[in-house]
Each structure stands twice: as C-alpha cells, then as structure tokens.
Amino acid sequence: MGAVCYLVAGRFRVPALGVVVPAIVPLLPGLDIYRGLALFAEGKDGALELASALATALALASGVILGQYLAQPVKREAHRLETRLAGPHMVGPLRRRAGKDT
Q1: For residue 80, how many C-alpha atoms fall within 13 Å in the half-sphere facing its CB?
Q2: Which pLDDT belongs to residue 83?
C-alpha cells in the first residue's frame, strides 16, 4: 500500500501522507482497542487485545514506510527511462540558454 500511495501521490503532485492516511484508516485496529478498553471497564484484563491492536498498528505503519522506501528507486529509474526514451521535445516555449548568442 505504501508503494502504491507513493506513486499515486507523485502522479497527482500531492504529499504522500495525504494519500496514505485515507487508505490506511479502514485497516486500523479499532475493534481490538474497543474490546480491550471494554474489558478494562468491566474489571477484566484487556491487555492482550490492546497489545494485539498495538502490534497491528505497528505492522501497518512499518508496511507503509517500507513500501514508500522501496518505491523511491523504482520511480527514479522510471523517470530516467522515460526521459531517455522521450527524445528531444519539438513543442513548447523556446528557452534560450545563458551564454549562447543565437
């Protein structure tokens, strides 16, 4: 998910965090947190549910970060290949280089 969100964010020119957060919210462990807190409210031990929620949240966060980390070189190489295959641009505004008299 991290890699896909990183590539989508680059395509739409928005920060990656703005794409990752809405994508990951449905996966967060809200039910485990609710069960753990409800068990604590009843006077029972809900530490196992809260630990499970923490482990799930850390796994999701590390997956997102790892995906973004691995997607950076892929995006860089794709851009380099695209630039090489595009060739000279024949359209667009004329840009004169500094120091050349033509």
Answers
A1: 6
A2: 78
